[in-house]
C-alpha cells in the first residue's frame, strides 16, 4: 500500500509530518444541516529515543479548542475528553490544540501544538490532523571558564517582552520564550550591561557560548553562536510501509483500511471488553478475560470507535485482561496481531502476540 508523502521538521530531532485529510477554506459559508468533524493528532515519523520526543506529553492531555467563524466556542477542554466526532453546522472552524499553557519564560517548558482551519459541509464528513510542532522558542547559554573568571560575582538575566529569567553560570537547562526578541544581560557590581539580542522564531532553540578575553583587551566579552537548533529535513515518501513495525503503528480507526495485512501494530486505549457478538461492556466489573477493546480515546464508550483484541491463554492474557487487571482501563497501549474484518462484530486483532505500554 502506498502511503501519503509527508514533510519532516525536526527540533531536537523532532520530526513533524504533515498529513492533511481535509480541504481547507478561508471563507465562511453556511448551508442547512450539519456535517461531521473528526480531529486527530499526527505524531507519525517521530524518531525514537530523542529528547524532543520525551518532552512531548500524551496528546490526550492536550487542550483542544474549536471556534466557529464568529469566534464562538464549540469545544474547549482536554482532548482525551472530547467526543470522537463533532456534529457541527456547515461553515468554517478554527481547530487549535496545545500541550500546556505558556505565558511567561520558563526552563525546560517547550509548548507543542498546531492550528488549522477547516470547512464543514452539510451532510459531509471531514477529518483534520493536527501536528505536534514546537510553538515557542528556546535559548541555552554555555558559560566558559574565561567568562566566569572575568566576572566571578556576576550573573545573567534573559529578558523577553513577556518576562525575564535569571540564568546562573551553571544552568544546564534550556530557557523557553514566546517567539520574538530575547535580550541577554550581565549583572555585575550592581550594573546591568546588555550583551546581545536575538530574534527567535517558533521551533528555534539557540545555543550561545559566552567567553571573555582578559588582558590587553581589557575584559572584552566575546559572544559565539554555537548553533541554532532548527533542523529542517527534506521530503520523504514511504512506499509499502511495514505496519508490522511498532514505529508504524496504526490508530484504532485506521485498522479497517489495512485488513489485507498479515500482522500489524495498533495503538489505542484499553476501554472495555466484548461479552458477545455486538455486545460490549465499558464499565467494571468486567467478567470476560479473553479479549479487550481498544478505543480511540481513553473515555471511548461507543463500539464505532473501538476494535476488539483477542487474548489467547498465556502471559499476554494474564497481563492485559481487565478481569484481573481493572486498573488498566484507560491505559494507552500498542499491540501486535492479525487484522480481522470482524471479531465480536467489529474490526479486531486476532492472535495478539506482543504489546507495549
How would you summarize the topology of this molecule?
Blueprint: E1 6-10, E2 34-42, H1 51-55, E3 63-68, E4 73-78, E5 86-89, E6 91-98, E7 106-107, E8 112-120, E9 125-131, E10 133-134, E11 137-143, H2 145-150, E12 155-160, E13 163-167, E14 175-177, E15 180-188, E16 191-200, E17 205-213, E18 220-228, E19 231-236, E20 250-251, E21 264-276, E22 279-281, E23 291-295, E24 306-310, H3 315-320, E25 332-343, E26 346-356
Parallel strand pairs: 2-9, 11-17, 20-21, 24-26
Antiparallel strand pairs: 1-19, 2-5, 3-4, 3-6, 6-8, 7-14, 8-10, 11-14, 12-13, 12-15, 15-16, 17-18, 21-22, 21-23, 21-25, 23-24, 25-26
Keyword list:
3 helices; mainly beta; Immunoglobulin-like; disordered N terminus; 357 residues; 5-stranded mixed sheet
Helical segment count: 3
Low-confidence stretches: 1-32, 45-54, 225-239
End-to-end span in angstroms? 27 Å
The percent range for strand residues is over 45%
The computed structural class is mainly beta
Radius of gyration: 25 Å
Overall number of structural domains: 3
N-to-C order of helices and strands: EEHEEEEEEEEEHEEEEEEEEEEEEEHEE
Biggest pleated-sheet summary: 5 strands, antiparallel
Concise account of the structure shown:
The protein has 357 residues and is mainly beta. Helices cover 5% and strands 48% of the residues.
Amino acid at each position: 500500500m502506498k502511503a501519503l508523502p509527508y514533510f519532516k521538521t525536526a527540533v531536537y530531532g523532532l520530526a513533524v509530518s504533515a498529513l492533511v485529510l481535509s480541504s481547507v477554506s478561508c471563507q465562511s459559508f453556511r448551508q442547512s444541516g450539519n456535517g461531521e468533524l473528526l480531529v486527530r493528532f499526527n505524531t507519525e515519523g517521530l524518531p525514537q529515543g530523542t529528547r524532543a520526543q520525551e518532552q512531548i506529553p500524551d496528546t490526550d492531555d492536550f487542550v483542544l479548542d474549536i471556534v466557529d467563524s464568529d469566534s464562538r466556542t464549540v469545544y474547549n477542554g482536554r482532548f482525551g475528553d472530547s467526543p470522537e466526532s463533532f456534529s457541527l453546522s456547515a461553515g468554517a472552524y478554527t481547530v487549535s490544540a496545545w500541550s500546556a499553557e505558556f505565558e511567561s519564560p520558563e526552563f525546560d517548558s517547550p509548548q507543542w501544538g498546531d492550528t488549522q482551519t477547516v470547512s464543514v459541509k452539510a451532510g459531509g464528513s471531514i477529518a483534520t490532523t493536527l501536528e505536534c510542532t514546537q510553538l515557542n522558542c528556546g535559548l541555552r547559554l554555555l558559560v566558559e571558564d574565561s567568562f566566569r573568571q572575568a566576572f566571578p560575582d556576576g550573573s545573567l538575566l534573559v529578558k523577553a517582552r513577556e518576562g525575564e529569567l535569571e540564568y546562573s553560570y551553571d544552568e544546564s537547562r534550556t530557557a523557553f520564550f514566546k517567539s520574538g526578541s530575547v535580550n541577554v544581560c550581565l549583572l555585575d557590581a550592581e550594573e546591568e550591561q546588555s550583551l546581545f539580542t536575538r530574534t527567535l522564531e517558533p521551533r528555534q532553540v539557540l545555543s550561545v557560548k559566552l567567553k571573555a578575553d582578559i588582558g590587553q583587551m581589557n575584559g572584552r566579552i566575546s559572544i559565539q553562536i554555537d548553533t541554532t537548533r532548527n533542523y529542517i529535513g527534506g521530503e520523504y515518501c514511504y512506499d509499502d510501509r511495514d505496519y508490522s513495525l511498532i514505529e508504524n503503528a496504526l490508530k484504532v480507526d485506521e485498522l479497517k483500511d489495512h485488513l489485507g495485512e498479515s500482522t500489524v501494530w495498533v495503538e489505542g486505549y484499553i476501554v472495555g471488553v466484548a461479552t458477545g457478538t455486538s455486545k460490549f461492556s465499558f464499565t467494571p466489573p468486567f467478567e470476560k478475560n479473553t479479549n479487550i477493546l481498544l478505543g480511540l480515546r481513553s473515555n471511548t464508550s461507543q463500539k464505532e470507535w473501538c476494535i476488539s483484541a483477542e487474548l489467547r491463554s498465556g502471559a499476554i492474557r494474564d497481563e492485559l485482561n481487565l478481569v484481573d487487571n481493572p486498573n488498566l482501563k484507560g491505559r494507552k497501549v500498542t499491540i501486535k496481531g492479525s487484522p480481522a474484518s470482524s471479531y465480536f462484530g467489529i474490526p479486531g486483532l486476532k492472535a495478539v502476540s506482543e504489546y507495549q505500554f
